[in-house]
Amino acid sequence: MTHLATFLKKIESKEALIGIVGLGYVGLPLAIAYADHGYRVLGLDIDPRKPEAIAAGRAYLKHIPGSRFAPHVAAGRLQATCDFARARECDAVLICVPTPLNESREPDTSFIEASARAILPGLHPGQLVSLESSTYPGTTDELVRAILEGGSPYRAGRDFFLVFSPEREDPGNPTFHTANIPKVVGGYTPDCLKAGEALYAAAVERVVPVSSTRAAEMVKLLENTFRAVNIALVNELKLICERMDLDVWEVIRAAATKPFGYQPFWPGPGLGGHCIPIDPFYLTWKARQYDLTTRFIELAGEINTNMPYHVVERAQDALNGKRKSLNGARVLVLGAAYKPDIDDMRESPALKIIELLREKGAQVEYHDPHVPALPPTRKHRLEMSSVPLDEARLKAADCVVVVTHHKAIDWQLVARAASLIVDSRNVVPRDHGNVVGA
């Protein structure tokens, strides 16, 4: 029996053990999806706290309660470990690790490389390796394949299967989740693609095959560059509307009534999350290798990157209008997560806004019901904890800056108690005279 036939049989019979490297916002939902469909799953992570939490049925991501995976743990369908030697037990290994930018805003593939090297000792004939991390076209068949083939006697497409399938997670989305979001898959060879389709069809309602791993990698970059460019457009439109004394939110809502040829995007204080602020730079970096300058995409990145500066400028101007200086002012920032109702603060514009306010001499506090503390990140060392939100604290603040519109925040209280509000999310009713858009 061929490697492909054996693999397909294991998937069909649910005998396959699915290994998932990285148990964060992408890996954990994926592990749950396979366990939901009756597969045994082995999670692999370098952070010992995650396997410990999974074993105890304890939530460590705000939007995924322990009740979602505890029954699978009890039934023996889900295990997690820091022992990467156990990757040799897996029939498929899915790599779901971060792909940040370095200080020069160029791709940092160190987590992918480390993961490939970690599973290399356990690589064996008939095994499938899938990369899910957002990255530039060529990563799978150039970087990952080189590591796996260079350190073993095995060859992709002949001895093991190699695919790329971009993650499409949207933390906190009540409608779309791992199982009902279509899964794009590209294989290094036709047999790799067949194996990848079977793997993902086992846990996802719809699989979308494409011609190659590079095409699949480009799909992900297109999706997020599309969003980044359109968000930049409305962010720039917001600046224009401010100068013209127009309400950009009113303009966008009215434009959205057109039933064709238009899709609404909304302005904000900057981009956040792991994908949209980063993926366009992966694309522009790769394009330069082909002597192409992606001026349009780079301009969008520049606009979005500058939005935190704009929010701080609006706060400074608003305070000036009250005959107060930002230097020495008490500023309360509402929201640290990059989007509402989750605890994910990766690349959140709130971090940059807080940093800029501090640099200008403001005394800054923040409140976020989902982010109790700001841990160190690659770019920021803020060392702050969320403060309680009450009327006294709102009244004591010289300026309240709205960054994230969590439903758990009492916005009527904010509107009533704060003397000055700089609102970057259009969440506080504008009929209060103390609100300034940003």
List the helices and strands and how they pair.
Elements: H1 3-13, E1 17-21, H2 27-36, E2 40-44, H3 49-55, H4 70-74, E3 78-81, E4 92-95, H5 110-119, E5 128-131, H6 139-150, E6 161-164, E7 183-187, H7 190-201, E8 207-210, H8 213-244, H9 248-255, H10 279-288, H11 295-321, E9 330-334, H12 349-359, E10 363-367, E11 373-374, E12 384-385, H13 391-396, E13 399-402, H14 411-417, E14 421-423, E15 435-437
Parallel strand pairs: 1-2, 1-4, 2-3, 4-5, 5-6, 7-8, 9-10, 9-13, 13-14, 14-15
Antiparallel strand pairs: 6-7, 11-12
**Classification by helices and strands:** alpha/beta
CATH topology of the largest domain, by name, is: Rossmann fold
Count of separate structural domains: 2
Instruction: Please give the radius of gyration in angstroms.
Output: 24 Å
CATH superfamily of the largest domain: NAD(P)-binding Rossmann-like Domain
Profile the largest sheet.
8 strands, mixed
Residue stretches low in confidence (pLDDT < 50, at least 5 long) are none
Order of helices and strands: HEHEHHEEHEHEEHEHHHHEHEEEHEHEE
Name the helicity range. 25-40%
Q: Quaternary status of these chains?
A: single chain
User: What overall geometry do the principal axes of the alpha carbons give?
Assistant: elongated
CATH class of the largest domain: Alpha Beta
How many DSSP helices? 14
**Intertermini distance:** 64 Å
Strand content: 5-15%
Any idea what the CATH architecture of the largest domain is? 3-Layer(aba) Sandwich
Counted beta strands = 15
Query: What average pLDDT do the residues reach?
Result: 94
- Describe the strand arrangement of the main beta sheet, using strand numbers: 3-2-1-4-5-6-7-8
